[in-house]
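Can't paste images in this forum, so I'm doing it all in text. The chain is below; anyone willing to post the predicted structure tokens underneath?
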Amino acid sequence: MVLPSILQARPFGAAQLAEIQALLMQSPQPSRYQLSRQLATLWNWRTASGQLKDMAARSLLLKLHEQGWIGLPERRRKSPTRSGRLVEGPSCLSLDESLLEASLQNLGPLLIEEVSQLGRHVRRAELEASVSRYHYLGYRSRVGQNLQYWVRTAEGRPLACVVFGAAAWQCAVRDQWIGWTRTQRAERLSWVLNNTRFLILPWVRVPHLASHILGCIARRIAGDWQAKYRQPLYLLETFVDPQRFAGTCYRAANWISLGQTQGRGRQGSHQPSTTIKEVYVFAL
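Text version of the structure:
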């Protein structure tokens, strides 16, 4: 088994594995929570606002555990954040699935609500359950920094869900287009945000709705990111499977097509591990 060279968007190797193994040996009966905080502290792994990225550290530890590189202690209790787990969704989720056909003009102004922040857990649970149920890729609760948007009519009827999360660690056509070095990418990757899910609910038939939503979100997302994380945001990216979609809504919303991925996945594994995607970006 080959040791990963990238984990959780960080360079990784034998030295980092040895540090983690030393943490496990130093603490005879640690909890997974304690280990993740110890690792984030050891690596000074923090957000731009100084908050420990212990959930990102937890995800990295779980990946190593699942691949057999380390043995984590037994889980003491379920994660209160549900991060990275399959979304089951509230049993009370009930959406009006009757056909909605309208022109964008007749639909009226949209309500676009960012629901990832504290105090909006019900809206967030509904969004995650909807994406899990109706998006062809399903959904796992986001690990790390993210934004989640519910899009509704003025009367409150749900139309769409849009989710943004961490950028891909490396993407050749994106990195060449930006023009940054490997060091610059490591320092500035938090300035890029990935549109990981975009769902128009399947019974909604409104021409040009998708590109209109992308335009509305592009005008506000930098402010939402700054308000939540106190850090700048300069570029949006997304990866479109050409076997399923033509990317029309992104081009209509003035996103730029950069070319294709090499099929190595978000973390940049050395061997092809996923389907080839079309890469689109939008400069803020």
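The chain is about 35% helix and 20% strand. The radius of gyration is 20 Å.
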